[in-house]
Amino acid sequence: MNAIIKVTVERQGLYDITHKVQEVLDETAVSEGLITLFIRHTSASLLIQENADPAVCRDLEQWLNRLVPENDPLYTHTLEGPDDMPAHIKGALTAVSLSIPLMGGVMTLGTWQGVFLWEHRHHPGTRQIVINVLG
Q: pTM of the prediction?
């Protein structure tokens, strides 16, 4: 089974999409198998991370922004704004796909884990994530 979910983003940051992914799983007859997520963009990524304390997400964002700053004089790809090249670098350093085992129709995430879309650009938009369920 394949599906595409669309996620509206308003700014740079982490967006918990666990519930959106589970909604797709609820519509399939597959209860045991593997779910693969793939983001169809080069300036955003996917992440499994703690979903209990929002400070974790804020700290990750601040750390990555410090690691990959905007307006670095090394960048030559600057036509789309000062956040574009850093967004591509952040996307290259993180993940564009995730694989998660499926048991009993639910993702086998740990107690404090959630699935996040990590938007690396500042402006609002819509991101697409392809979901493939094998079982």
A: 0.95
Handedness of CA 94, 1, 34, 116 (dihedral sign): positive
CATH architecture of structural domain 2-27+47-134: Sandwich (2.60)
Q: With a cut of 70, list the residues of the chain below it in pLDDT.
A: none
The residue type of 11 is R
- Spell out the domain ranges in the chain: 2-27+47-134
Q: Show the beta-strand stretches assigned E in the chain.
A: 2-9, 13-16, 33-39, 44-50, 97-103, 106-107, 113-119, 125-134
**For 8-26, how does the pLDDT look when each residue is reduced to its tens digit (9 = 90+)?**
999 999 999 999 999 999 9
User: In angstroms, what CA-CA distances link 48 with 31, 56, 77, 135?
Assistant: 21, 12, 29, 21
- Residue among 47, 39, 34 nearest 5 (CA): 39
